[in-house]
Amino acid sequence: MTVHNARSIGAQHPRVRDLLTLRKDGSPGRIMVEGSWEHDRLLTTAASIDAFFWCPEVATTGVHRIAERATEVYRISEKLLARLSRKTRSDGLISIARLPEWRPHTFEFTNESLVLVADGVEYAGNLGTLIRTADAANADCLVLTSKRARPTHPSVYSASRGTVLSTPILEFDDIPSAAAWLRSHRFRVHLADPAATGTYRVPQYDGPTAFVVGSEGSGLSREWHDEGFDAVSIPMLGQADSLNVALSAGILLFEARARKAGW
C-alpha cells in the first residue's frame, strides 16, 4: 500500500516525542486516537487531525481515508509502533486529533435540557464513561469542576466510544462559577448524595435539570453542598453503600429524560 504524502520517520522525530507525551495524559485540546473503530468514529466528526501515523506492515484498511483528512502523515516501523501503541495488538493506526472548543456563553437551554456536572472525577475511564452516558441521555453538555482526570487522556476516547469529540464539555475554574452559570440559566440542580433522605424519584424534573456527581473516593466537594442545592439519593438495597459514579449518573439522567419525554 502506498500513501503518497507519507514521510518515513524514526523515534527521534519531534512528532514522535509529541505523541509519546499525548500517550501518557494528553495535552490541552489534543487527544491520541488509536485503532480501527476509533478512527471510523473520528472520521464521522469534524475534528481536525493534526498528524496521522501508520505502520504499513500492520495497517490494512482505512489508511487513505484518514490520510486525506490529516495535516501531516507519517509512516512508522513495527518497532516504533510497539513503543507508541497503548494496545496489546495494534491496528497500526494512530492519530493526534483536536478536541472541539466549547464556550459557556454559546449555550441556549429549554425545559427539556439536561446537564451533567462531574466534580473531581479521578479516573480517565470513568470520565470517558460519563461522557458516553451524557451522550446516550442526550444531555446538553458535561460540566467539569475540581478537575482531576483530563478529557484529553487516551483512555477517555476509548471509554467514551469517541463521543468525547461530539459531547460539549465545559470546564470551570471553581465551583461557585459553575453554580452561578447554572443558576443564570434557571437550572434546577440536584446533588447526587448517598446520604440524602429524598430519593431521585421525588423531583418532577419539569424544567432545565442538572445533576452533580462526585469523585470515586470522597464524593462531592463541600462547596457544592454550600451552594444550597437539593440532594437526591439512589437507594442502596444490598450491602454496598454506593454505585459507580458513571452508573449513578446514568440512572439519574435517564430518570429525568424519561420524565421530560413522557416515557
What is the topology?
Blueprint: E1 7-8, H1 14-25, E2 30-34, H2 36-43, E3 49-54, H3 63-69, E4 70-75, H4 78-84, E5 93-98, E6 114-119, H5 124-136, E7 141-145, H6 154-159, E8 169-171, H7 175-184, E9 188-192, E10 209-213, H8 222-226, E11 230-232, H9 245-261
Parallel strand pairs: 1-4, 3-4, 6-7, 6-10, 7-8, 9-10, 9-11
Antiparallel strand pairs: 2-5, 3-5
Helix pairs in contact: 5-9
What this model shows, in words?
- The model has no long low-confidence stretch (mean pLDDT 94).
- 32% of the residues lie in helices and 20% in strands.
- Strand 6 (114-119), helix 5 and strand 7 (141-145) form a beta-alpha-beta unit.
- The strands form 2 sheets. It has a 6-stranded parallel β-sheet with strand order 8-7-6-10-9-11, sandwiched between helices. It has a 5-stranded mixed β-sheet with strand order 1-4-3-5-2, sandwiched between helices.
- It has helices spanning 14-25, 36-43, 63-69, 78-84, 124-136, 154-159, 175-184, 222-226, 245-261; strands spanning 7-8, 30-34, 49-54, 70-75, 93-98, 114-119, 141-145, 169-171, 188-192, 209-213, 230-232.
- The chain contains 9 helices and 11 strands.
- It has 263 residues and is of the alpha/beta class.
- The protein folds into 2 domains: 7-98, 2-Layer Sandwich (60s Ribosomal Protein L30, Chain: A), CATH 3.30.1330.30; 114-259, Alpha/beta knot (3-Layer(aba) Sandwich), CATH 3.40.1280.10.
- Helix 5 packs parallel to helix 9 (245-261).
- This is TrmH family RNA methyltransferase.
- InterPro entries: Alpha/beta_knot_MTases, Ribosomal_eL30-like_sf, rRNA_Methyltransferase, SpoU_MeTrfase, tRNA_m1G_MTases_N.
- Residues 114-254 form the tRNA/rRNA methyltransferase SpoU type domain.
- One of its GO terms (molecular function) is RNA binding.
- Keywords: Methyltransferase, Transferase.
